Amino acid sequence: MSTYYVVSYDLSKPGRDYEELHKFLRSHRDWAKVLESVWIVESDLTQLELVNAALKHMDANDHIIVTPYTGVAAWYNISPEVQKWIQKTHVS
Questions:
Q1: Model confidence at 92: pLDDT above 70
Q2: CB of 16 closer than 8 Å to CB of 22
Q3: Which of 5, 14, 71, 83 has the greatest count of CB atoms below 10 A from its CB?
Q4: Are 41 and 30 a contacting pair, CB within 8 Å?
Q5: Which structural domain, as residue segments, surrounds residue 34?
Q6: 61-76, pLDDT tens digit by residue?
Q7: In what order do the strands lie in the sheet with 30-35?
Q8: Residue 37's CATH number
Q9: Which of 10, 40, 11 is nearest to 28 (CA)?
Q10: Could you give the 3-state DSSP secondary structure of residue 21?
Q11: Into how many domains does the chain fold?
Q12: pLDDT tens-digit series, residues 4-33
């Protein structure tokens, strides 16, 4: 069963190319890059599996948290495309 998750991370190594992490996040069934380091993804993985899979594309000093996305959100000044995506995928 797929679940929507909020994936938020801090990448600590300056100058590092994190395209592989972004490719991994885009590989999920549905996704949106909400902010620079915040994504919402639909995944068949559990939260822990998602963290462990993402860690393969991160450095040891980076940080990540994955939480369920309920579809309830408030925002300010995010792109119109992301606003439409959030409204379209309202999952509560």
A1: no
A2: no
A3: 5
A4: yes
A5: 3-88
A6: 999 999 999 888 889 9
A7: 30-35, 38-43, 3-10, 63-68
A8: 3.30.70.240
A9: 40
A10: helix
A11: 1
A12: 999 999 988 777 778 999 999 999 999 999
